[in-house]
Amino acid sequence: MAREGARPAYDPAGHDTELRAALQEVRTGRWMSMRNLLERTTAWWQWTQRTQVLAAAAAGTDVVRTWLAEEPGSVPATVMRARVAVERALRARRENHRRTHELWIEAWDVSRTAARVAHQDPVPWVCLLALAQLDRKLLWEEHRVPPPGPMLPPGPWGLLAEADKRDPYNREAHHRMLQFLYGQAATGRLAEAIGYAHWVADSAPRGSALHVLPLYVRVERYRRGGGHSAALDLHWVAEDATREASRAYEAWFEHSRADERTPLDLNHLAHALWGALTFEDATRVFDALGPYYTPLPWAYRADDPGDQAQAVQIFLQARARSRSAAHGPDA
């Protein structure tokens, strides 16, 4: 449990101490701890989460290339090569880098290789889903497959199905699909993304992090609406907003294991419950979160979303307000 005065800390590993230790090694160019950690990782949800976080740290290094040179037949190293290639391609797109297309094709190629080598692994398919957002014009046939349900648009549904077949309700796979839909609605309405998030949450089992998905879309709607303002703050106390927050709390938080919860999901849920004035539930989520703050969604409440100091302050105010309302001013 986080104490009242605990300062928030951004740490992508969150409560995963083994992952934190491996990340420190990766950042210094060493790969053995990463390999050993992944060899011990047997659950697909944890494998997906750990490979994603490790890739973000490894993308600016040659550590995975070194690993592959030492162990060229390693299946985990092949999957990590795909992870790193995808991370680099997505970063290039965000930065409008001239090599974006080249990196995209390279990432697609190594992800397809990983899918052949690690044929039971959902992560190579998650990688291909992540790359789909780069195809804004839907030039690739695999990105315009007919949808599995009404009111959904064409998209990379075949890729999602492959990931789902290997790990049903894979958290990252559905977030990648949501990012694809955001890209298709880059200058328009988010109706399809909203419909998709609720379609997924409605079918997800209790304890699944996918019950938090509608909260991400609500944050994106807020961001596209212009961010912080008195009028837009009503966005968080509307009836549908409070219903989404309560449902995510009841269907996910109350039925999930602490070690399966990501800091990003916990931050989104704490933010939604605080915004909905559901302070007792928000306090329980803040306590489960501990000090593991993530910049989003708090930064979108700031006057300047790039001002991380203000985002941290909003997090602290939300935590203190929730605890004070739940337990009294002396809590």
Overall geometry comes to globular
Q: Give a short account of the largest sheet.
A: none
- Provide the β-strand percentage band: under 5%
CATH class of the largest domain equals Mainly Alpha
Instruction: Give the count of structural domains.
Output: 2
SSE order = HHHHHHHHHHHHHHHHH
What CATH architecture of the largest domain do you see?
A: Alpha Horseshoe
Number of helices: 17
Overall structural class, as computed from helix and strand content, comes to: mainly alpha
Distance between the termini: 13 Å
In brief:
Helices cover 62% and strands 0% of the residues. It has 331 residues and is mostly helical. The two termini are 13 Å apart.
Describe this structure in words.
The protein has 331 residues and is mostly helical. The chain has two domains: 14-184, Serine Threonine Protein Phosphatase 5, Tetratricopeptide repeat (Alpha Horseshoe), CATH 1.25.40; 186-326, no CATH class. It has 17 helices and no strands. Helix 1 (17-27) runs antiparallel to helix 2. The longest helix is centred in the first third of the chain and has 20 residues, at 75-94. The radius of gyration is 20 Å and the shape is globular. The model has no long low-confidence stretch (mean pLDDT 93).
